[in-house]
Amino acid sequence: MSTQQKLLTINLFLLTFVLGTSEFVIVGLLAEVASGLNIMISTAGVLVSAFAITFAIGTPVLTAIFSRYSKYPLMLILISVFIAGNIMTALSSSYLLLLLSRIITAIVTGVLIALAMAVGSGAVSSEKRGTVISIIFTGFTVASVIGVPLGTFIGQRWGWQASFWFTALLGVISLIASSVTIPKGLKGTRSALKKQIGLLTNPRIIIAFFIPALSIAATYTVYTYLTPLLQQVLAVPDQYISLVFLLYGVVSILSTLIGGKLALRNGLGKLRIGFLIQAVILLSLYYSSNSVIGGLISISFIALVVYTMNSTIQLYFIDLADQYDPSAKDLASSLTPVSINVGIALGSGLGGLVTTNIGLIDVSWVGAIIAIAASMLTFISFGLNRKRYSV
Questions:
Q1: What is the DSSP string of 249-317?
Q2: Quick check: 113 and 19 in contact, CB under 8 A?
């Protein structure tokens, strides 16, 4: 890659790091938010679901609408709104205001991720796309390694509002970097909104969409309630909670790297077995939770498989758009993060039901069942792929 392409990739990595930190830091602060606003922890968990649902609904529609505009000014405006949304969160003194601020932030986060993927994959040759996409996705995993643990520490030390002043500051840094590195000549693609949205009715797109959704839902059934699991089931002292999130994030970097390797050749075929392995790992937490060490090992393996499908699915969506409607590439680029957030909403919501009506540790075997469903859909999608290219 040229120096300009490398700088652009680094900036897009930074952008997804900032977006990931803002989105996921709330998971480590559910107890503090619940205590500060005097609400139940399951009510605080709704903030995670609401963000994900807003992301899922708003991203494809807004991405299709904004695809006609030049990407440089559009991305700078959206980053500015992102900063404002985080400041609004930091200033929130009521649950309703906090919920509204998270919805605003979710709307721009989804479009920014889609634009980052589209700009990144379009700026390099086809053989470099997998590498660039995996680097951009790594921003989310590094957010888990550095951003979320640091944000959790800040929130536990100085109040949860301080964490969002921190993410607002990160947004300012990303705005400055983006103003320098994003090419100014990236024009939009004019296409009828109805035609672009029509891509979403394609059966192969629909099946592919629910693969990452179910895989992430399987993980987030557990991950959304990781803090209370650590506190109440594994009896991990509060001062070590942020270290566990750090452990999770470090291991998840390997997950992204594994995903990049899987995408190089027959990634979809490999994911069929990968999701079955994910199911076994999630189920293992149910049996290993009697021991702190055993429970942490299971959590580490959960992190190891969480992002293995990202690069493969992202490129698969773009390739499907090439086949059926090349003008909808921006929209196709939004589908993986949208699907992931549908999965987050499903997983966090289901996890809330399980923890309320059954028990905290039961989220593990429920997550395993969802991972098996992801594997079944991958088998179907893989079969359709083989059928198409054998004709």
A1: HHHHHHHHHHHHHHTTSSHHHHHHHHHHHHHHHHHHHHHHTTSHHHHHHHHHHHHHHTTTTHHHHHHHH
A2: yes
Please name which of 175, 223, 163, 171 lies closest in space to residue 19, comparing C-alpha atoms: 171
pLDDT > 90? residue 36: no
- Dmax (CA) of the chain: 62
> Rounded to 5 degrees, what angle do the CA atoms 297, 222, 25 make?
95
Domains and CATH numbers, the chain: 3-390 (1.20.1250.20)
176: pLDDT confidence band, cut at 50, 70 and 90? very high
pLDDT at residue 228, rounded to an integer: 87
Tell me, what amino acid is at 276? L
Mean per-residue pLDDT of the chain: 85
**pTM for the whole structure:** 0.74
Would you mind telling me the total number of residues written for the chain in this entry? 391
Q: Using CB atoms within 10 A of its CB, is residue 28 exposed (0-12), middle (13-18) or buried (19+)?
A: buried
